[in-house]
Structures are given as structure tokens and as C-alpha cells.
């Protein structure tokens, strides 16, 4: 017997059964589901960092979509917020890496 103790996609038990295997599952309550989604996000991001691919990005988006749902919003709403933040603060396409910030001297204009 192999223990997994993790959130899986809805059709995984069906796939396991189609291979002649059995599995034990349970339905999570809301609070535990939200916690397990956060763990799943960490798992998917780790997988992406280890082997970057469009498939892994899609897995991350699937988890983010479900997290949004637990917050009572849609992924479309999250994307609208993303675009608002991008308009106000920019995105990351210019590849700017901030190395340091120097505080302005009292009474001075700082370093420009």
C-alpha cells in the first residue's frame, strides 16, 4: 500500500479504478480543503521550478482557479485585478532587477 495523503484531481480515483486498483478517499471540509489547496499550490510550483513546462503552468493555474473559488471570486476577476495592478505598477516584461534603494538625505533631494 502506498500512502499519498494529498489533494488530487477529481478523476484520479476513477483512473486508479480503471487500472484495476483500489484507493481510499474522503471529501474535505471547506477549511481543510483551503489548506490542502495551498499545499497543492506549493507542490505544483515546486514541480514547475524543477521542470518548467506549459503543462506545469496549467496545473498551477488550475489550483489558483480553485483557490479563487474558495475566496468567492472567479479567475476572470483575479485576472482583472492582475491587469489593474499591471496598469498601476507595471508587469515584469522589462526584466527590472532592483538591487538597492538609497534613502533621501534629510533636507536634501536624495540621489536621482
Kindly describe this structure.
This protein is 54% helix and 0% strand. Helix 2 runs antiparallel to helix 3. With 112 residues, it is mostly helical. The chain is elongated. The longest helix is centred in the middle third of the chain and has 21 residues.
Summarize the structure.
This protein is elongated. By secondary structure, the protein is mainly alpha-helical.
Question: Which short descriptors sum up this protein?
Answer:
112 residues; mainly alpha; 0% strand; 54% helix
- Average of pLDDT: 95
Q: Note the overall shape.
A: elongated
Radius of gyration equals 21 Å
H and E order:
HHHH
Strand content: under 5%
Characterize the main sheet. Answer: none
Query: Portion of residues in helices?
Result: 40-55%
Point out poorly predicted stretches. Answer: none
- How far do the termini sit from each other? 64 Å
* Helix/strand class: mainly alpha
Number of helices: 4
Question: Got a strand count?
Answer: 0
Write the layout of secondary structure elements.
Elements: H1 12-18, H2 30-50, H3 54-70, H4 75-89
Helix pairs in contact: 2-3
Amino acid at each position: 500500500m502506498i500512502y499519498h495523503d494529498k489533494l488530487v484531481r477529481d478523476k484520479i480515483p476513477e483512473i486508479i479504478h480503471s487500472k484495476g486498483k483500489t484507493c481510499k478517499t474522503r471529501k474535505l471540509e471547506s477549511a481543510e480543503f483551503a489548506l490542502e489547496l495551498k499545499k497543492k499550490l506549493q507542490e505544483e510550483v515546486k514541480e514547475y521550478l524543477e521542470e518548467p513546462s506549459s503543462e506545469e503552468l496549467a496545473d498551477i493555474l488550475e489550483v489558483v482557479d480553485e483557490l479563487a473559488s474558495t475566496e468567492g471570486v472567479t479567475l476572470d476577476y483575479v485576472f482583472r485585478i492582475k491587469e489593474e495592478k499591471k496598469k498601476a505598477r507595471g508587469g515584469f516584461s522589462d526584466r527590472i532587477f532592483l538591487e538597492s534603494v538609497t534613502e533621501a538625505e534629510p533636507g536634501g533631494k536624495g540621489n536621482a
